[in-house]
Structures are given as structure tokens and as C-alpha cells.
Amino acid sequence: MGSPSEPSPVKLFFAILFSDEEKLFEAIKFISEKNGEIDFKSMPLDFDETDYYKQEMGENIKRIFISIKKLIKPDEIVDIKKQSTELENILSVDGKRKVNIDPGYMDFSKLVLATYKGGGCKIYIRDGVWIDIMLRYEKGSFQSFPWTFPDFAKGKYFPILLSIRKIYKLQMKEIRSKIL
Asked: If you placed Cys at 122, which of 5, 114, 130, 136 could pair as Cys (CB 3.0 to 4.6 Å)?
């Protein structure tokens, strides 16, 4: 018979779509002020898997990933999602977003994004926020699911995500060494 236990801390990251570099810099500054020191920042990558955001965000959309040094409890993602949505609204121009901020976290076995959209294989947390399990980590690499966003599923972000996972792994090793 099992007994209740606290989950291990998880690695907070942000997958940010942007079409305006100035707004991106403002977003990163805000994210850092609210969540702490950034310990990883990727180079921008072209976001060309879909035209879904083109009407709202315009042409030449890019994606960047950042991760935060401080580890979080999994349910903290709810408040972080709310902050991110507030920031998107602040940085919008004429009601159109110039940045789309997807907060997420990873642990040793999965990568999730926070969303306001339920359904499918999404898991409700609280306050209208769901988590969407995008990838699982198995046998040394990330694996997608049938519902994984196309840009995540194709693997072009895997090297970036593996770099973030490596940082997380070192952080967890340090935490565990302090416990023993």
C-alpha cells in the first residue's frame, strides 16, 4: 500500500514564439524578474511547421527556449501560466500578440506545457490550467505522442531540450547529494 509523498522538483522552462525582438527582450526580462535567474537560453529557431500564428503574429516567427535555475514544484506551473498570459497581453499590439509564452516543465520522464485548453490527454491541475504532456524521455531520447505539437514532434528542439535536461540532472544530483 502506498502513502502520500511530495513530488520531486521539476525544471521550469519557457518555449517562446516571437515576431518582435524588442518584445521578446521585454518578455525575457519580465520572466527573469518573476521566476529567477535564467540558466539556459537557446538560439532562435524558425517556426515554420504551421501558419497557425501567422495572422496574429505576422511573418518571420521564431521560437526560443529559456530555462530557470530555480527548480519548482509541479503545481507552481499554474501561477506561472497566469503570469505568462498576463505578460502576453501587456506586450500585445492592437490586440495581437507579438510573443506567445508557453511555460512548461520537465522531470526525468516527461516534458509538459501548461495550457488553458482541456481535452484529450491533458490533465487538469487547478484554476483553469491543464498540463499537456508533449514528450516522454525514454532510452536516452525524447519521444513524441500522436498529439504532440508538430514542431516538438519532429525533433528539431531535442538538442535544446536535452541541454536543459542535462542542467536539471546536475541540479537533482546536487540536491540528492545534500540529502544523503
From this structure: 130
Q: Mean pLDDT for the chain?
A: 95
> What CATH number has the domain bearing residue 96?
3.30.70.260
Q: What is the pLDDT of residues 81-92, one digit of tens each?
A: 999 999 999 999
Total domains in the fold of the chain: 1
Burial 103-136 (b: 16+ CB within 10 A, else e): bbbbbeebbbbbbeeeeeebeebeeebbbbbbbe
Q: What residues make up the domain containing 49?
A: 11-179
In this predicted model, what pLDDT tens digit does every residue of 99-154 receive, in sequence order?
A: 999 999 999 999 999 999 998 889 999 999 999 999 999 999 999 999 999 999 99
Spell out the residues 6+ positions from residue 148 whose beta carbon is closer than 8 angstroms to its own: 134, 135
Domain assignment present for residue 6? The answer is: no
Is 78 within 8 Å of 129 (Cβ atoms)?
yes
**CB of 120 closer than 8 Å to CB of 142:** no
